[in-house]
Here is the input.
Amino acid sequence: MPEALFIKPGLVIPAQELSERFIHASGPGGQNVNKVASAVQLSFDVLQSPSLPEAVKTLVARALPLSKDGILTVSARRFREQELNRADARVRLAEMIAKAATPPKPRHATKIPRSSKRQRLDAKKQRGARKRDRSKNFSD
Here is the structure.
């Protein structure tokens, strides 16, 4: 059984919480493709995991597509070897959880610069004057 999955400092998922299923991969592979299960489906129960804090569970549940039961599944079939697909799935799962676990940066409200307001009002005055001039020319 593989070792624990390191996400970031202070966030590690034990190997017992990960479930791997090996399936037949589609694509090229010749006659061997029907005999060897080289693709990997790595599943992780996000909502029932004791190793994730509640705040992280909430962020992950919002950001990633979970099943009805709260299970996150990653499929890896990029390589022809089972071990490479297994490592790929673990890396992708770690990246997904790390990205989802980082809270979004708070937005700081900024004021519209005075020069931008002035430019907008000047442009409106010019457009209005242009339209006013057109109406004067046609009324003769």
